[in-house]
Write a structure and sequence with these properties.
7 helices, Rossmann fold, binds 5-O-phosphono-beta-D-ribofuranosylamine
């Protein structure tokens, strides 16, 4: 049994997709959601899906070992970041080497790094006149968006696309590919 924990700061649509994808699979279980944001959509999704959801503040996350201890006590094998905005502290990276996976809504190394999240990414893509964008699923290290790339998928960006339209195309890719890529990672663990 592979036990997953999902971190999210926002709506949590990817977290929900992953949870429902694995719901009928016996070898994988989504055990918990974790969030820094008490008004994030992920909280309501956790309630509806029956997934225990843990809230934490910046100090607890960055300056203590509490979250690492919690994940270890729950025997979590794989940590998924699905729209989680804070930098992962070194103690967490070290406790889960190559076991923390992030999704980024662009084709890294382009449009990554601090401040490049959500609509900022899609605005920058449109502003630069890119003809394609996409998703990157990668391992997490101590720097934003720099760990080894596992998977990328592309979509076209039309010259008339707004950032919102690019966001919709990218999110559609995320919902299809993220659960499947996680399943493949688990198969190779
Ligand atoms: C996704 O686009 C993800 O790539 C980005 O944040 C968004 C999260 O969306 N890092 P949701 O909360 O899963 O709906």
């Amino acid at each position: 049994m592979t036990r997953i924990a999902i971190f999210a700061s926002g709506s949590g649509s990817n977290a929900e997709r992953i949870t429902t994808y694995f719901a009928d699979k016996e070898s994988v279980s989504v055990e918990m959601f974790l969030s820094n944001n008490p008004i994030a959509g992920i909280i309501e999704r956790g309630r509806r899906l029956g997934i225990p959801t843990v809230l934490f503040d910046k100090k607890t996350f960055s300056k203590t070992n509490k979250i690492v201890n919690l994940l270890q006590n729950q025997q979590i094998d794989l940590v998924i970041l699905a729209g989680f905005l804070w930098l992962i502290p070194e103690n967490l990276v070290r406790a889960f080497p190559n076991k923390i996976i992030n999704i980024h809504p662009a084709l890294l190394p382009k449009y990554g790094g601090k401040g490049m999240w959500g609509h900022f990414v899609h605005e920058a893509v449109v502003e630069a006149g890119e003809i394609e964008s996409g998703i990157t699923i990668h391992f997490v290290n101590e720097n934003y968006d720099e760990g080894k790339v596992i998977f990328q998928a592309k979509c076209e960006v039309d010259s008339t696309d707004t950032p919102d339209e690019v966001a919709r195309k990218v999110q559609a890719l995320e919902h299809v590919h993220f659960p499947e890529v996680i399943e493949k990672i688990i198969a190779n663990m």
